[in-house]
Design brief:
This protein is mainly alpha-helical. The chain is built from 3 helices and no strands. The radius of gyration is 23 Å and the shape is rod-shaped.
């Protein structure tokens, strides 16, 4: 007894799903990077006095921006 299995539709759907997930992931990563850059730019724009008032120093800026952008990743 012979039978036919159609896998054409599932392969096509799988490829589109994977491409969609890839672009969604890339979009999320770009938004996270924008948050990182925006946070870094704002923190670097502060004077040393303003940073001291916040209890920060310049060596902490990258880790603070990274936490702000990627904490929920």
């Amino acid at each position: 007894m012979a039978f036919v299995t159609n896998t054409r539709g599932t392969v096509r759907t799988d490829i589109f799903a994977r491409l969609s997930a890839f672009f969604a992931n890339a979009s999320d990563r770009m938004e996270q990077y924008r948050v990182y850059r925006r946070t870094m730019d704002e923190l670097q724009g502060l004077s040393d006095r303003e940073l001291t008032d916040l209890g920060l120093n310049r060596t902490m800026l990258a880790s603070i921006a990274h936490e702000a952008a990627y904490k929920n990743a």
